[in-house]
Amino acid sequence: MGRWSLRFAGSAVAALLLLFMSQSIAQTSFEQEDLLIQTKSGKVHNFTVELALTAEQRSQGLMHRESMPKDHGMLFDFGETRPVSMWMRNTPLPLDMLFIQRDGTISHIHRKAVPFSEAIIDSRGPVHFVLELNGGRAAALGIEAGDRVMSKRIDSRD
């Protein structure tokens, strides 16, 4: 095989690999459900959230998303209460990360996570869920640690 043939073959393999990777990202789908956040002052904020329930879904999260409606988010359910670490790799949206206890209480909020950052964002203790919202949304709505998150998934916990 000549040098040109090897280059072409290598380029074709690389193109197929990229196509496979992009299809696997596009193929991951998420169920949705309604979610409410009730602040300590009694205000209730409604969101539609995608559910990241499997390891594959949690791994993908909101990576590669260019935009998200202001009343949407993603709820990560880890299936157990444990310390959680997140990052923003391949995520172009700034996000607020709400770390949530099994009973729906927000224990910590990491505000405006930096897009594409590989810095570790720590839950600061064991949590069962993480809710990602558009960056700045929690502050705009007055959502704070101690507020309550409610949904079918969270309310169904013992």
Automatic annotation (TrEMBL):
Pfam families: DUF192. Keywords: Signal. Residues 1-26 form the signal peptide. PANTHER family: UPF0127 PROTEIN MJ1496. This is DUF192 domain-containing protein. InterPro entries: DUF192 (IPR003795), Saro_0823-like_sf (IPR038695). Transmembrane segments: none annotated. It comes from Pseudorhizobium halotolerans. Gene3D superfamilies: Protein of unknown function DUF192 (2.60.120.1140).
